[in-house]
Structures are given as structure tokens and as C-alpha cells.
Amino acid sequence: MEIQHFLHNHPLKFYENSDFDDLDCSGCGNSLSVQTYGCVGCEFFLHKSCAKLPREIQHFFHPCTLFLRIGSYVCNACYSNHSRTFGYRCKRCDFDLDVDCARLSTMKSEGDEDQIQHYSHRHPLKFLAKMGDEVLCQICEKVCSDNVYNCRPCNFYIHKSCKDMLPQKLQVFFHPCQLVLLTTPSYYCDACEKDSSGLTFRCGKCYFQLCVKCFRSSSASKSEGKQIEHFMREMEIQHFLHEHTLKLYKNSDFDDLDCSGCGNSLSVQTYGCVGCEFFLHKSCAKLPREIQHFFHPCTLFLRIGSYVCNACYSNHSRTFGYRCKRCDFDLDVDCARLSTMKSEGDEDQIQHYSHRHPLKFLAKMGDEVLCQICEKVCSDNVYNCRPCNFYIHKSCKDMLPQKLQVFFHPCQLVLLTTPSYYCDACEKDSSGLTFRCGKCYFQLCVKCFLLSSATKTGEKQIQHFSHWHPLMHFETMEEHEVSCGICTKLCSAPTYGCQGCNFYLHKFCMETLEKEIQLFFHPCSLISLSTPSYTCDACGIDRSGVYFRCCSCRFKLCIACSRMCKIIDKDYEDDEDDVEFEVVEWQRVEHFSHHHPLILVKMTSENYFESTCKICGKPFSDATCFFCFRCKLCFHKSCMDRLPRKIDQHFFHSCSLILLTTPSYKCDACEKNCSQLTFRCGKCQFHLCLECSLLPRIKPGAFEKIQHFLHEHPLILSEKKVVEVPCNACGAPCFGSTYGCSRCNLILHKSCAELPQTIRNSHLSHSLTLASLNSKERRVTSEKSRKARCRLCLRDCCDFAFRCNKCDFQLDVECALLKPRIEYPGHNHLLTVVEKIHDELKCNFCKTCCKDSAAFRCLECNFSLHLLCGPLPCTIKHKCHIDTLTLKDQYVEDDDEDDDFYCDVCERQRDPKLCVYYCSEGCPMIAEVKCVISEVMASLKGKRGNVELRIVGRYISSKMISKELAIEETEQNEIVKDASKSKYIESMAVLFDDILVSLEAAERKQLDDIEEAIRKGIETNITSLESSSEYTSSFAYSEEAFKRFMDRLDSVILDYQIPDFILEHEEFITFQDYLIPRTLIPTFQDLLSKNEDICAGSMLSPKAKSLIFYFLCGVIENMRATRIVDITDQKLGEWFACLKWVKYAGFKFQFIFEHMKYLAHAHFVVQARKRVEDFPVQLKQEIAQISQEIDKLKVKLRELEDQQEFYQRQEKSIRSSLTKQHCDVPSAIKWKPAADGLL
């Protein structure tokens, strides 16, 4: 006795359980007992009762239809865990019910309210008028005193009034989908954001869950409802640091990603933009835009970038951070979250702006540690942070202000911490606490601050802005020979000085010294400071004492040069006779390119060709120029006019660059040693020579030298006559006109050098920027680095790529210029054709890998097709043949008995399964697609104009859009169409299970009648086609064998098991009054175009007809993707079984039946021929195998016979020896216990 169970592939045989006492039932998991159905080979056994469980049930505990399946799950009724056993499941709601809970019978009270069955609990609930104990209602969570329904074994209680308040299905205003009531051991409420258990309202599609408490709040009062509405608004937010909307996700979907805010792993709930791979913890998404923090007195603003935290000194790359731009102060998210402690008079623990952590008070110190402020030993009354090894005296705590105004700097200074800095007072490197002026970038160490804050005593000690220490008054300096720090003369008159620094000033010089000056050749103000040694950037002389300095530009100017720029015009008259120039006009010109005034002169013929302009370095074409008599320098007037004083964001450097003069420097662009004029960034100590600063940008034309915005050095134009190295942008070999930098091993095609800096790409809603992915050091050393991958072709990008840093999205240079041009039926977007896919990628049609082949791609939908699975040109013109070549699905003649097929282009054997291009004019010309791929790709890329396309094997036409205007119009039409129909399509998109659940009783009966008719139509039991062995030598071609084969095909039925090739089309939409899977719409259209009245004779409802079309179109689509040689008996049986539903549904079936009979006959013959050819080989192999086994057995037999003969000869001597040597051991000893005589 056998049955075929719909959850197992093989027939199940009936057994008595005594044969399998040690096994468990594969259905319920309990021990086998009484009678058993089983498959011994698979060890699959079922109780007789489990084998008869229905495939689908309606249960009071869940409103949807439940389907039987086998798997691992947690029961939503009893919370028990199950592993690989039967269970009833609602996939839509993610609801599971084990077999035992499903068997609980539904009780009918029939008006008796003493005991009821309620969907809030799996057991019957008993009514109690009075309660002795105080228990809480599971719904309202209030005390139950009277009128209660309960289940005492489960400790479950609900008020009678609450019973009807809780609906089994719910539609709330803050979620678009319907919610279903169920129970679960644990869940997270998306409204109140709390963990809970028990009753919940769930949307299985979105996995949105709502606890009962929030449900009551949303329906109880307006105020509570507004609170829930507020929570729901957080399901989708617009963050001010990202341009797209962020959706709320469960973190389980993005376990391998980090938060774009704090940089830590994602956990709990996540806001994200999947397209840009931008994700935030919910806490990070709620960070305020600006904060006030105890650690810094200014307002801090949230931004995303790379920085070093001024609190913990940790490095951050592309993460959130709070910044004060004015003070150049950064605070990471973790440090910003440190709460400000309020001591309220308690000084045992305080929060101080000198350290990010709370400081604890210690009256006595056991160890010798230094105070971070005064740098003296801390012995008692100390505040400390032991983890950071930070200590300060209690007296020093209030001595250090958070904001400071010092006499020697005009701007306000702010206290902050930094890992390293340069003190502009003592000119020493330091770290930790510093006072900074963000505007001038002036920094003062704590030690210099303490020295500068010393008190003055009467007239003997004063503070002067030229020195940061107090200056003592001296009437005479006869005993010591010291020089004045301003005029450099000996100090004999009344003098002020600092003996510790050996710094002295005449009283007159000190009183006449300006604190701050503004000069014509420097854009910033210069303040007076003093230092033991410095080099003047104007004259280049090493000096000491007082000087003028720009802290932001690091520009230094001696006192002499500052006064020289104020010389009156007539002072030059004495120098006029010393030079061979004729003064045209005594007009003093103050130009920022030189620190001395310039005079307009006319050169004599003797020095006309000898002098060069100090800006451009070229000789003079006109005798008139501007001249500096003191420095003997000449300047073109045109060069002075076009020279900028300041460059903002040069392609060499992102900071602003100021034009300065300096004695000598090294250009950071061309790395040449230069002198005089330079563009400098004082903060970064970056120098740029005039030649590099004035290089032309990339423009169409033949510049011999250009400056590319992605490279730090000039690029030189050259002609490559031989192929030497690949282009750093596209990777193709370089030949012809190229730009290169020999120092960095960088070479670019002329066309690649002229690529635009930004492009608009159809794959993203925002622009892509051309970026360099490799640093100069890697190119010079040829170091292998981790490559960025192109999202389109999956190839590692070269040094250049078009990139969006926000989305971490990049395209290589070649793919970035490709345009989507191909229309594909059933897909909403145009497809882009790619010549080669360089990594693993699954084709959405044939489900195989696309690696190393051409493909069609849509990045928006992650949709991919092999070149041969997508639309191809119907005709092409190729140099291999004079006539036009036409696309043909396969070129195999019915009467061709030869299995060898050749391509006439390469003259090699070809695969008959693949499509070809052939000459339809009668020439015997057949070409594989790969042999004419150049012309195929040219047509698909739009180089041949508008061409007609066709999808191979499916007879679906398509087209290629060649003009950019047409692309824009098509995209615009798609946007308008999507906007107008998005709500309609979304609302109509349903799953197969949804259609089954929505069937009415009459429609279910129609389908049951079809199933019953199918079962009556077969005379024999279900037979496994794969077990058949009809195709044996002499009977392989007989009509009788074919008849038996067809009888077996006719006996196959689905029996509750729908094939996977049908179920893979799961999303249905409304199309021509029917519910059709979106992916099967092209097939459905082809079917109706040739057989418009195919269902005219059917009496089924439209929804039932939709299911029949589902089977029919699914079979046709699978047949299109399957070659006859690849058909198996099982596949053919599944097609026949599905089409039986079409036949008994009243559809026109004759044309389908004729084609299926043709396929069955072709498959039968192919398999019979194969088996006839293989039969002699199999017999020969079996004979050889058995012969080898016989030979082995013969050898084994001879060995055993030799052992027997040897034993018989030695038996007597062995017995005699045993008796003599062990005569003291009696034979009966074997019956004694092993412990006999031990104790």
C-alpha cells in the first residue's frame, strides 16, 4: 500500500511501527507508533494521522489560510521550538502553528458564554463572575475583579469588556498595510520602540509591529493618538546631511555595514538610504544640528567629514562630528554625547573644560604626578581623571580661563586641547592644552600664558605687546652691552627688558612701535612679536628681536623691511645714475607682487634683451617696465595686472593661497627649488610657484603643458609611436597624442585628459565627479592597492573613475559614458549594454552566471541579462559576408542527421543550442554571435541608428533608442508614467498566496471541480517517470514503448506540489482584466495575439482564469528557456501536469496538445537513441567491473585456502605446546567471575 505525499518526492510505503521503533515522525516529531508511512531511502516517516493532515486549513487563531510545510520555526501559539517538522504557516504574516496546536478543535459555544473560544488565546476561555486573586488583564493591563474570561493553566485573563475591543484585523492611519493580531514570544514595537511579548498587531510584508498598549493609545484619545502619529512619522525622515529620504529598517538586513554617523556597527534599528549605502543608528539620526558643550564655549554644528577629535584625539574618516569652524575645533559624536555633570555645590567630582571626563577630588596624592597646567608636582588638593592620567591642582582649576584676551595679540583666544601644535609665543612644539585664535591661527601654550599673566609692580614692571613676558625698567645699561630688539643699536638710554629671554627695548623704540600694521604687499594684518631668531620673508636675512608676523600665513617681516616700503619717491634719485635705465615717470606704484615700491622705467638697448620679468620669466618685448631700484628687479605691466593676490581652492590645494615673497622654497607641485614670489598656505605650509599656479586648465586644444585637476604636477603633451603603457584613466594602451607626468608614471590619452570633471548619469539622481583613486606614492612605487569596483561592469577601476562619495558609488571611465538605450518588455527602465562582466553576476532570466560575457544591466533594479538572453538586432551588416545577416534562434534542420555544426566565419564547431546570424538570401552562410559581436555591439550602442531588436526564443520585439533627445524624452515619459500609476501599481501588486486567500467559495468550487476531473481522467496510479527503464536496446524505437511512455505522462498530476518554474513568478498585477505575473506579461501578450479566444469557452470566473493563465504562461516561458536536448522526463511530466488544468478549465487546448505530443515524441526519440548508443558501453563497463571483482575474490579464496592448509599442518604441535606451557590453568576457569580471589 503506497501513497504520494505532497511534501515528499517519493512514494511512501505502509509499515508496521515495530520496524522503526528508534525513529521519530517527520511530521510531529514524536516517536513512531501504531502504523507508519515512510520512505526508507530518505528516512522520511509519518504517523498515519500526520500523513493525512490537510494541505491547508482555516484556524480560529489566525484569520488567513494556513499551509502545511516542513521546516524549523517557533510556534506562535505555544512558543515551542521545532526543527525540521510539519507546521502550518502563513507566509504573508510570518505566522507559524505547530501540528499539535493546529489539531486543537474549534469550540462552538452556541450562545453559551460560560466558555468561549477567542483568537487572543489558543485554549478555550472560561467565564468567572468574581475573581478572588488580583490578576491583570492581558489587553488593558488593569486589575481583573469581576466578569473575566480566563485560562488558569496558562495564567491568561481578559475582561469581558476587552474581549470585543481587540479586532483580529486592523487598519491604522499611521501604516499603509493591514495589521493582523497574533501572539509571539518576543518582538519590538515600532511605535513606542520598546521590547515586548505576547499579543501584537503585525504587518508581515513590512514586518511592522504594534503592541496592544499603543493600539489602545491610538484609538483612545486624540492626545494619545497624536503621540502614536508622531512615532509613525519617524518611519521615514529627511536628514539635513543627506539629500535623499531615509527609511527605518531592521538592522538584521545590514549586519555587515557601519553607521555613517558614528562609524560603529549597525544595531537595533537603522535609518538608511539603500541606493547610497548611507545608514544611521536611530540615535545618530536624531543628533541635533547644533549643540552647546561644556568643553568648548562656541556653538558646535554637526557635519560629516574627516577630522581629528580635539577631545579624545581619535581620527575619523567620513563620519559625523561637531565643528566650530571659527576655532578649528572638532568633537566626535561619542565625546559630544558625554553628558554635562551638575555638581550643585559638591566639589568631590566636577566637570571642567580642561578635560572631557569628570574630575574627581583627592585630598592627598600617593604618587608624584605633574599638574597639566602649572607642570608642578601634585601632592594634595588635586582633581584627577585616572584612566586618562590627567591631574590639575585645585588652585590651578580657576586660574585657567576658557576665553582669554592677551596684551600681545589683538584677537580673543579660546582654550582647547589638540594632539600637537606650535606655540607662536615661545615657538616650540607642544601638545594638550592651548589657547587658539581660529581667525589668525595664533596659538599660545599654557606655560607662556602663565608667564604673560604675571602682575606688575609700580613703574618697574610693565606688559608690552611685543613680548609675552613682563618687561623690567632699567635707567642705564652701562654694565651690559645689549642691543635693542627693534633698532638693533646698543641700549644706553632708559631701557625695558626681560633678562630671562635676553630681550631689551629702548623706551623710545618701544613707545613708537606699532602693535599692528597693514602693508600693501600682504592682504592680512601683521602683528608685532619677538623671537630669538627668524628669517625675514622679504629680504631673506636671519635676524632676532621684534618682527611683524601674520599668524595665519606664517609670514615674517623684519622691522627694517616694514619701514623701507614707506620710502619717499625722491629717495631713488641718488640710485638713478648707478643703473642703465631712463625713468619715464616718478610715479610710485605699490604692488603686492613686491615688498618695495616700483617705478616705471625705460630700458636702454644694452640691457633690453638681458632682463627678464620676475613673474613670467620671459624677456621684454617692450622697453617699458616697472623696476625696483633696491632689488634690481623688472616686471611686465601685463603680468602685474593678471597676477592674482589670492587663489581660492586651487586644483593643487583646497585651502586659500596667498601671494607672498620668500627668499627660497620648494614648490610642492613641481618640486623645484624656487625663490621670491610664491603662493602659500600658512596653515598647511604649502608652497606653489608662479609657473604651476598659472598653468591652463583642461580645455579642447593642443596645449604643450597642462594642469589636470586630478594631478599635482604639470602634464606634458607627447606623441606615442609605439604602445608602451596603459592609460591610467581607461586602462587601454596609449598610442598617439598623450599627456604624461614622468615623475609619477602617469599617462593619459588626450581624450581621457579632456574628460569633464562632473557628469550626470542616468543610474543616479545626482552627479558623479571624476576622482583619482590612487595616490602619487602608489603610482611611483607600483604598489598594489585595494581597487574600487565599477558598479556596472564589476571591473576594478583604473586610477581614475567617476564617483559619488556620499553613495560610495563609482563607474569606470568607459562605463560612465555609456547610455541606457535598450527597451526590454516587462521592465520599467532602459537597459545599458556592457561588453564584458568581470565578476560573478546572476542573469535574471536563465539564472546562470554572466561572468566574462556581454550583458544588459539596469543598476536601479539590479537587473541583469546575458547578451543572448536579451534583445538582439534582427539584422546586421558584417564584413564577413556581402549580404545582410538575419538573426535566427537556432539553425538546425529537421532532416539533419549529423550532430556536428560549424560556424562559417571561424570554421570551428558551434553549439547548436545557441542563436546564429545567417544569410536569408540562400547563401550557406552561418555565423555565431561571438564572431560578429563587434557589429552586434555597435548596433546595441546606437552607432547604426535606430535598429529593430528581438528577444531570442521568445519572439518578443524590442527597440534601441539612438538619440540623446529621445532618451531624455523616454526617461521623462517614464517618470510621468510612474508618478501617475505608482499608487495604482503598488495597490494591485499581490502574491500568489494572496490570490488563493481571496478566492470566494464559488471560485474555490470551480477549481476543486477541475482537480476532481483531472483525477478521474487518469486510470492508473501516479508513476515516477525517472524510474522507467523502457529505453532498452531492441524495444527503444517501438510504438508500444512510446505508447507506454505517453500513458505515464498522462498519469502525472500536480497533487498539491506546484513546480518551482511556476512559483518563481510571484508578483501579480492587473493586466487586461486578469491577474498576471509581471514577468509573464510578454508571454501572455504573445499568447493572446495568436489565440485571442483561447478562454472563450471557459465558464470560470476572471480570477480563476487568471490562475489557469498562470500555469499556461509559466509552462510556455519555461519551454522557451529549455532546449529539446535538455528536457528530462520529470520536466516533461510537470508540463503535462500543469497543462491538464488548462484542458479541464475549458480553454482551447488542441494546438497545445499537438505541440506537447510533438515534444514528447522528439524527447522520446532523443533519449531512446542516446540509451541505445550508451547500452553497449554500459554493458561493457559492467562486465569489466564484475570481472575485476571476480579476480579479487579468486585471490582472496586462494589466501584463505593457504591459511587453512597451514593450520591443519601445525594444529597438533600447537595443542601440545599449549598444554605444556599453561598446564596450571584449568579449562573451567572461564566460567568464574573476573573478580574471583581479588578481595
Automatic annotation (TrEMBL):
UniProt keyword terms in alphabetical order: Coiled coil, Metal-binding, Repeat, Zinc, Zinc-finger
PROSITE patterns attached to this UniProt entry: ZF_DAG_PE_2
SUPFAM superfamilies reported for this sequence: Cysteine-rich domain
Coiled coil residues, start to end: 1183-1217
InterPro entries (UniProt xref): C1-like_sf (IPR046349), DC1 (IPR004146), PKC_DAG/PE (IPR002219), Znf_PHD (IPR001965), Znf_ZZ (IPR000433)
Phorbol-ester/DAG-type domain span: 120-177, 354-411
PANTHER family reported for this sequence: DC1 DOMAIN-CONTAINING PROTEIN, PHORBOL-ESTER/DAG-TYPE DOMAIN-CONTAINING PROTEIN
Name of the protein this chain belongs to: Phorbol-ester/DAG-type domain-containing protein
Native species: Hevea brasiliensis (Para rubber tree)
